[in-house]
Amino acid sequence: MSAPLRVGFAGYGYWGPNILRNLDRLANAEVVAACDTHPGNLAKLKAAYPHIATTDSLDVLLSDYDLDAVVVATSAPTHAALAARVLESGKHCFVEKPLTLASADAKHLVDLAAAGDRILMVGHLMVYHAAIDWIADYIATGELGEVRYLYFQRLNLGKVRADENAFWSLAPHDVSVALHLLGETPDGVSASGADYLRNGVHDVVFANLHFPSGKMANIHVSWLDPHKVRRMTVVGSKKMLVFDDMEATDKIWIYDKGVEPADAMVYGEDLTLRFGDIRAPFVKMTEPLGTEMGHFVECCLTGATPRSSGVDGLRVVQVLEAADASLATGGAPIAIDVEV
């Protein structure tokens, strides 16, 4: 059995504790040391994980502990600089989503990882959800037919942020899933929204992603809504599928419904609607974050390309940037360079 991956950890704030909890459980990884510049966060980390060395300096973390990889779970504005330092030190790097706040910075990280032959993986959590795995496999069987379009709703009342709009805060999940399921990058994005609570910070956004194949994805995000909704609908040429992550058990529903050419003998009819059975397949659920961290460690140990690689992270940032540009112009379509 090979030695476990020696991992360092940066950032024990809002989401960091969840990542570290899952990472520390893995048999093929050893969390050696962790850092945070906030004394309160560092104290909580020490109390929860007395076996992990702690420091308030990323430089010390990178130089003093003989690490193979580092997880960056700090705030989004720090991702570009911290991940660059990790990669420049010759270590594999996991970065919580979004990869960066600018596609130029994301491209720089991708280039650094490639030049150093290091793994760069982004925390696109929903790509590791058991239900999304099942849906991807189901699409591949052809049972759904050709996927025509998808639409997503990610809504709730709060958490309202001041440093990023609702699309940057919520939509990376849905953008990453859309790109994963369709297997292509959008060539254009248009978005409209409103900043009801804070001037210049959109709290509700409706975005349309157009793909080179002609497929579409619509994403509606809001933190100003009476319901907590986490739902995706996939419309295929044969069947339709709904994934509702708020359901405790039956998260996926398949509808044998569609529109087909009518019987040629029926005069005046050129289309007919089909209404068939509805079923909810059983899907064994696992904690997506545990799957995600296990995948990162395995990729570092084997050299495999992550399911949510740095290139995938860059593509998601490109979509987020294009949505911002479209919002600034009142909804004008913004082209995306798909040759990444």
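Above is the first protein from milestone M3; the second protein from the same milestone is given next.
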Amino acid sequence: MAEMLATTNNRIQSLPGAPKNWWVSLLWTLPMVIWSMMVLSGGLFRGSLVERVAAIATVAFLAGVFLWMMRSGETYRPRSIFFVALGFLFPVGFIWELIAQRGTMSISLEQMLLGNTPFCHLALPMMALPALLSKTIIFPGSILPKPDNPHAFGAMLALWVGATLILGRGWCSWGCFFGGIEEGFASLRRKPLWAKIDRRWTLFPWAVLTVVVVGTAISLAPFYCEWLCPFKTVTEFPAVTSLRTAVQFGIFTTLFAGIVVVLPLLTKKRTQCSFFCPLGPVQALANKINIFELKTDPDRCVSCGLCEKACPFMAIDRKEGGVRQVNMYCSRCAACADVCPKGAVRFRIKGTPFTVNSSVPRMMFLSATWIFATMFGGSIIANSLAKILGHLF
């Protein structure tokens, strides 16, 4: 095992999908730099000094991460740095805005009913059945963006549909800022303290999805958001004015501590995303229609199991002969591909043989993904950095 790990660390330039020279890497990176400058053009060219500095730093950061992925052939580590930064900077900027507008992270029932609650993508699975039954959007937010609430249902739906078509469940490792918080805690330890987890837990999100969809349809209120969302702890929550809201707040904070902080620390797995998120099963089904995939070449696989240990989603199955194969729960984080000592796990376009050069589908996937990640995450990072820098200076 130690020999395999040493081999993995010494073979960066031979990872499947790595360009052969700097010029190719730079050519792939240049359009991403131009795109990030376009996305952040407001801060770069029309913002205050602090906003310009934040935008420049964000463009440089995004360019560095993408160039790292292109040049080295690694995907997981550079992606994780971006993703964790997005995860922890999002609540900074979000809470800052809430405090500036309201003076508190909590929101009153009156404000919720007025549609002043930013729409959250985790609420999307709950919307369909109530919409069919009542012909209304039951989430307490606006359908179209408003000056005081740009994060409306229509904008989030369009963003989610576009991201799902491009990424499949890759949304969970490239775009969902909530997942970045969890991944940050999961990465703090080098080895898990709790390594054995029953794989049947991967079915639990389907039960959660069923409960929240049915609960929402019965109550005509967003059941997950009202009772089960751990991320209310770091975004906004109903003002604690009664026993009901006190119980809700207690559930939110307990779930956040348990499945976003403690369990990821113990297991090095993304436990909330894997076992509790109601959007996870929907994204897993989206993998079926996404053209990209990570797949194991059975002729190269030596059944070492490193990919299975590295996967943060328990998305690796053991097949006949000990061959490990990625399943539908894959989030396209590429931890399995990076750790494989034989280069057996690689990005592919579905239906193509393993004899096809693996660098092309990998770079196609990363480019399409990075366009989305920059558009969505780049703005969040730049805005949060501007608020931090503005406070410091």
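Note on the second protein: The chain is about 60% helix and 5% strand.
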